[in-house]
Amino acid sequence: MSKYDALGQLFVFHESAAELVRLQIRAAATTRAASTHYARSRAVDRRQAQQARGTSHAVIDRRMRTAAELAQFDPQEPKRPADLAVPVVSLGSLVRRGYLLRQGAGYIRTAKPFHVDPAHKEAR
């Protein structure tokens, strides 16, 4: 066997190995693209489902309760939570979000509007 025959056999062997590697790379890219497409389509499906459902009734009920609590506070005269039927736990988030202001030992209502869509409540 001549050295050119041996080189030819080596070339064929390495070319087939390289082709195998190319096929594996293409398969991995296809799998990666398919999984990315699947993940994106699932995210779109979840968003569409959430939009179709709208706001849940529990969230609407909680917003209605919060609106009722905020209605108990006066914009000029500070009121203490102990004097009202308001849980003190809920006041911190209302202060952070700008619906109430702490003044002395009580709280006053700010001018920031708190919106609740009553149409959701009636649609039950």
Describe what you observe in this structure:
There is one protein chain. This protein has 124 residues and is mostly helical. The protein has two domains: 1-53; 57-122, no CATH class. It has helices spanning 3-53, 57-71, 91-96, 118-122; strands at residues 100-103, 106-109. The radius of gyration is 33 Å and the shape is rod-shaped.
Overall body shape: rod-shaped
**Domain module tally:** 2
Terminal CA distance reads 89 Å
Poorly predicted residue ranges: none
Strand order of the largest sheet: 1-2
Radius of gyration equals 33 Å
Q: Can you count the beta strands?
A: 2
> Proportion of β residues?
5-15%
H/I helix tally: 4
Helix content: 55-70%
What is the H/E string?
HHHEEH
The largest pleated sheet is described as: 2 strands, antiparallel
Instruction: Quickly give the structural class.
Output: mainly alpha
**pLDDT averaged residue by residue:** 80
Summarize the structure.
This protein is mainly alpha-helical and 124 residues long.
